[in-house]
Amino acid sequence: MALRSLVFLAADDDRMGRFLALTGVDPGDIRALMGEEGFQIALLAHICGDEPLLIDFASGENISPESVVAALMALSGPIMD
Q: What is the DSSP letter of 50?
């Protein structure tokens, strides 16, 4: 799901630019980072942290928003408020 979320972000310059700006990730490092759990968590957390983005992603993937949140929780553990 993290890879799919990266593809979703990369399909739109504004979405990708916002992710890169907020995380400080260098675009040239993305390929190397994709295998790292922390980067995968950052991708999913970014999408889950923005409800309209989450809904757009889930809709485009034909999955429920809850399944995206579940994927994040599976990687990172329960999210504390």
A: S
